[in-house]
Design a protein that fits this description.
The chain is an all-alpha fold. It contains 14 helices and no strands. Helix 3 crosses helix 14, helix 8 packs antiparallel against helix 13 and helix 10 runs antiparallel to helix 14.
Length: 307
């Protein structure tokens, strides 16, 4: 991926710095974090150093201490905003975490992007949707995989079961990220990793950044699992609608396979994620129940804002 264009003072300074060999950043840079566009782009760039990196950026930047200090400042601001944002989403925990997750998903009243795409979207609008979703889907499953070494027992086994499906059982052509790339190719879109970051607004970057935030911090492992559970539990029906919308616009079975695959896969993953993953995790670590709900609420809230 090439470095994107700056969106504010902090991202501009960071991008300029990454063009040079690793060196200490100005300590005052964290105080220059601008609006949400600047903040989310800084986080996205810092996080991507842990994934595929950037063309012509020295890989030693990944663990450069002053860059990590900038990331920490941006993360603190992001996490505070997330906690304020999801505070109104309260659920009854008396019936256990799986039931609380189900109640949280069922109570979600965000605008239905999937209904709009199914019934009304033009091809241009569907293409825009796919471009924005590519920010996450071209690395689908990778952020949640950070959770595997952070948990144990039945919860680990459940997470691995989900991730094996996400990675196509080890077959390249069945990997969900590759299926999404095929959809992009059928629509005539640039399929390169990160090609559409430039057109993604802050709220779209945030839907990707939040998973990296949870995945890269062991203290937030419960939130990572809750995010995955909400993601899977709220996915099957929307993907059916996305597939039908693309068929309405002339998409063939190859183009719609990504969405059709998720209708079945996510229906299975829903139970695994809620019961076998989150349920057994909280049974082993009861103090983490609120973290699981926090992560689920962040998933639903950010996706709703993006919609």
């Amino acid at each position: 991926m090439r470095l994107p264009r700056e969106r504010g003072p902090a991202s501009a300074a960071l991008i300029d710095a990454l063009a040079l060999p690793p060196h200490d950043l100005d300590p005052a840079l964290s105080g220059k974090l601008g609006d949400d566009e600047d903040l989310q782009l800084v986080l996205f760039i810092c996080y991507e150093l842990h994934y595929r990196g950037f063309d012509r950026v020295d890989e030693r930047w990944e663990w450069q201490p002053s860059l990590l200090a900038l990331r920490a400042a941006a993360e603190e601001r992001f996490e505070e905003a997330l906690r304020d944002l999801v505070a109104p989403r309260r659920v009854d925990m008396e019936g256990g975490v799986p039931r609380a997750l189900r109640a949280l998903v069922d109570a979600d009243d965000a605008p239905s992007l999937s209904r709009f795409l199914q019934r009304h979207a033009t091809l241009e609008q569907f293409n825009e949707f796919v471009k924005l979703r590519s920010v996450y889907h071209l690395k689908e499953a990778d952020p949640h995989t950070w959770g595997i070494p952070r948990i144990d027992g039945r919860a680990k086994a459940a997470l691995i079961e989900i991730q094996i499906d996400e990675y196509g059982g080890g077959r390249l052509e069945r990997m969900h990220a590759e299926l999404f790339r095929t959809t992009m190719d059928c629509l005539g879109l640039d399929t390169a990793y990160g090609a559409h970051v430039e057109v993604a607004p802050a709220v779209v970057l945030a839907t990707s950044n939040v998973i990296s935030l949870f995945g890269l911090h062991r203290r937030l492992r419960g939130a990572l699992l809750g995010h995955l559970a909400a993601f899977e539990m709220a996915s099957s029906l929307p993907n059916r609608r996305y597939g039908n919308g693309l068929r309405r616009l002339g998409g063939d079975p190859t183009a719609t396979r990504f969405y059709d695959e998720h209708v079945e896969a996510d229906a299975v993953h829903e139970q695994i994620a809620a019961v076998d993953l989150c349920g057994t995790f909280v049974a082993a670590e009861p103090a983490r129940a609120a973290d699981v709900i926090f992560g689920a609420a962040c998933c639903l809230t950010l996706d709703g804002l993006a919609a």
